Structure formats: structure tokens, C-alpha cells
């Protein structure tokens, strides 16, 4: 029985549930359900705080989990990333009142508020800056105004929260994060975990690619294939029309309209694009 940890609330919750649903796993009926048994897939889903997930997985009580890369790193738990999941993207950055600081090195001797003390302390040690870390639970942007800290280190996505309190980011981003699938560091990948990874990879490919079909004169096929190389080479079949072939290839969703324009210029016709519902590559 594979045991998977899923964020029970917060920004990662909905997208994590969605990707597992698309991968064929059972859904919880309401947000109060904390454990879902999915006998069809021989697994159990445990809904936990995203911050705690790396701890459970690192202890080996759960086989895999979905959490943020920043939270995994912050926890210091013996767990490792196995698959980036393409949602929950953010950066972890320093911010302060405009003009107060311009680089991490200016922070020596100052107070920095954060709810990611583990991540921040590791970063300060790496860059050799001695500063005081003030650990808060959340809403750290207000700490400067209330005189608890001189700077903050926090998750920034759109930057709206910082703008609203008149703060600005400074220095290089400390970390770029997104939701990731994790397992215990060094744990072997059993069959259930391998199946979970393959399924999630299938969902990610189905999201990122479309299927493109078109007809083209045989003499242009090399140029057409250069535009639509597919994953392992496109399928080229004869067409019941002298001198023409039909081509089928997976194409990145992003930019597929430009590819269609270029194929049209090349003389391709009947260019069709369809969604991929699910796949296993
Ligand atoms: N706009 C965002 N705000 C906060 N976290 C975000 C955002 N976008 C992506 N994330 C990621 O989501 C994770 C944080 O999730 P969440 O905010 O739900 O946790 P939390 O701060 O512990 O919980 P809560 O905010 O409910 O106290 C981190 O991995 C973070 O990088
Ligand atoms: O750049 P933005 O798009 O504004 O998003 C970033 C903000 O969102 C998060 O807060 P959250 O809602 O998780 O509250 P918290 O700080 O209490 O965790 C994060 O801590 C920032 O405050
Ligand atoms: Mg939060």
C-alpha cells in the first residue's frame, strides 16, 4: 500500500488534488476528510500541512508527498525531490524598505524576519553573513513596520503583498520554488512509487503537449519534420492521394499556433490540433 502525503490546505492544495485526480487517484469528498483509502490504486492519501509533509516523508512513515521545494529545504528533513510538478511556483527573496539594503552582505548584524528560518539560516551560512533570524509563523511583511525586524525573507509570487506594505525586494533570489514530489532520501523506488511517478509524468506531458496531425506533399517532409520532430520521431503514413503523406506528432502546447503557421507556409493542409487526455511515454 503506497502512502502519499497531500497538502490539506493553502495554495498547493487545489493543484495537488487536481494533478492526483488527473493521474487517476481517488478524491476526498470534503475538506474535513484527512485520510482517503484508494483500494483500486493500492494507496492511501494523507492530507497534511504542507510544511509537515517533508518531515513525515523524511521519517519514512509516508512513501511520497507533494510539497514546496522551499519547504522541503527549510525542513532539513532527510527527504529528496523526485519530480518537479509545474505548479505553486514562487521565489524566496529578501525585502525591506526601499533604499535600506541592496545586497545580502548589507544584512550583517541586522534582524531578518521569516517563516522559513531553516532555509534562511542555511543561505546566510553559505554567503557568510552573520545576522539575527527572527522566526515568525506568517504575515512576516508586517514585522518591519512593527519594529521587530529590519528586513524580511519571504515567498514572493506576484509581489502584491510586498507592494501593499511599501517594501521592495533586494539582492539575488534565495531560491526558486515550485511544488515537487518527494520521497525519503535514499529510499528505493518500489513499484507503487514508480507507478505514481509515471502517472504524474503522464499528466505533465498531457498538459504541456498537444497532438498535431497534418497532410503535406512528400517532398517537403524533411522540413516539416524539423518543425514537428515529436518525442521519438513523428508517425508518417501514406495518404490516399498521389505525392502526399499524413504526419502525426506531439508538439509543445506553447507555441503550437506558430508551428501551424510555419507548416501552412510549407504547404501543409488539414492541420488539426487535439488535446492529449492522458499518456504514458
Ligand atoms: N502566492 C503564494 N503564497 C504563498 N506560497 C506560495 C505562493 N505561491 C506558491 N507558494 C508556495 O506554496 C507553499 C506555501 O504554502 P502555504 O502558504 O499554503 O503554506 P503555509 O504558509 O505554511 O500555510 P498558511 O499560509 O496557510 O499558513 C510554498 O512552497 C510556497 O513556495
Ligand atoms: O507575492 P504575492 O503574490 O503577494 O504572494 C506572496 C505572499 O503570499 C504568502 O502569504 P500567505 O497567504 O501564504 O500567508 P502567510 O504569509 O501567513 O503564510 C507569502 O508568505 C507572501 O506573503
Ligand atoms: Mg503561506
From TrEMBL:
GO terms for biological process: L-histidine biosynthetic process. One of its GO terms (molecular function) is ATP phosphoribosyltransferase activity. The keyword Heme does not apply. Its EC number is 2.4.2.17. Feedback inhibited by histidine. One of its GO terms (cellular component) is cytoplasm. The keyword Metal-binding applies. Pfam families: HisG, HisG_C. This is ATP phosphoribosyltransferase. The gene is hisG.
